[in-house]
Design goal:
globular; transmembrane; single chain; transmembrane helix; 2 domains; mainly alpha
């Protein structure tokens, strides 16, 4: 556990320095990047899927991954990299794409800090999703440019199919929700979940329709095999993000990109209410769509013109994302079966 605390302490120190001394932001960003490469990229047997990917990498010739991930997977194997070295390379690719997404951000160190804390699971476990996340951010950057939005969204799907949702939800950018309607859709979704209508639908699909499509089977697997109720703590945590969006709803509605991200995050929260007994399925979705809250956090200084309010918003996001980081590290269990994060090991140390 001490390694995770040390990693967090170093990153938050560099972030605070970058916020106080603006001229050092890029230097702190570079240092933070190298520390992240060493700590996350160099991890060994850390992350729920590390051992599974390592087995596939070392022993299975026939693989069935998304196109670009499979391309790099086979390329690294052809180059003779060990799996820990390939894992390091995947993380460096993720950071390269992330850098392209935030190249115009004024607070790069803060952006990286938020990205690591809020995406820790995708960066260490569901690494295909981790590779796709920067393309969400790139798409948000070009929300007013339909061609670029769909281009970056499509590239994201080539790393992980969950990005396909970005191709479907573009119309959400036009929807502006008032506070009363904000509350109404939450209440409606709660009632749908309470009366278990979705599980009835899943039961019907499972018993009447035969799927031959790989991705359809995958969805059905996540909604039946991993039929696990949503954690109350996870729901309360997400509710904190929703309350923030509710409070600053009017400000967020004034900018199309922030309004779009607000709607995506709200949509994801509504799904967690509707699919309340399918926690694993929704977590897979939320690992991707939660990036919308990251994008809002990157633009925190726009939300209010008052300095004190800006500082409160910044403190909220630092606290909120830090809780997410430690929440996953401390629970340390995947489906209550196997250790995911402890003990921490690094292949550079081991060598």
């Amino acid at each position: 556990m001490e390694f995770y605390i040390l990693f967090f302490a170093i990153l938050i120190t560099l972030t605070l320095i970058s916020l106080v001394y603006k001229n050092f932001d890029y230097t702190c960003y570079i240092v933070s990047t190298f520390i992240a490469i060493f700590f996350i990229g160099g991890r060994l047997n850390v992350g729920a899927d590390f051992i599974e990917y390592q087995h596939i990498y070392n022993y299975e010739e026939k693989i069935n991954f998304d196109f670009l991930f499979e391309f790099f997977f086979k390329l690294f194997r052809w180059l003779g990299l060990s799996y820990p070295e390939a894992s390091l390379s995947f993380f460096m690719l993720t950071l390269l794409f992330f850098h392209l997404a935030i190249k115009d951000n004024s607070c790069k160190t803060l952006s990286l800090f938020f990205f690591i804390l809020y995406s820790i699971v995708s960066l260490t476990s569901t690494i295909r999703q981790g590779l796709s996340l920067p393309f969400y951010l790139l798409a948000f950057n070009y929300i007013l440019n339909l061609r670029k939005y769909y281009f970056y969204s499509f590239i994201g799907t080539l790393f992980h199919v969950s990005s396909f949702i970005m191709l479907l939800i573009y119309p959400l950018k036009k929807i502006k929700i008032s506070r009363p309607n904000f509350l109404f859709v939450i209440l409606f979704s709660f009632l749908v979940g309470y009366f278990d209508l979705i599980n009835v639908l899943i039961w019907f699909i499972d018993n009447t329709i035969t799927f031959n499509n790989y991705h359809a089977n995958k969805i059905l697997t996540y909604s039946t095999r991993y039929n696990e109720p949503m954690s109350l703590i996870s729901q309360l945590y997400r509710l904190g993000g929703v309350l923030f969006l509710f409070i600053f709803n009017n400000s967020l509605c004034k900018r199309e990109d922030l309004n779009f991200c607000k709607n995506i995050y709200l949509m994801t929260f509504l799904f967690t209410l509707i699919f309340k007994d399918n926690g694993v399925l929704i977590n897979r979705l939320s690992f991707s769509t939660n990036v919308s809250l990251l994008y809002i956090a990157f633009n925190y200084d726009y939300i209010s013109k008052k300095k004190i309010t800006k500082e409160i918003i910044l403190l909220f996001f630092i606290t909120y994302f830090s809780v997410n980081y430690f929440k996953f590290i401390l629970t340390d269990l995947r489906y209550g079966i196997e250790s995911a994060y402890l003990p921490y090991r690094n292949f550079i140390f081991d060598n």
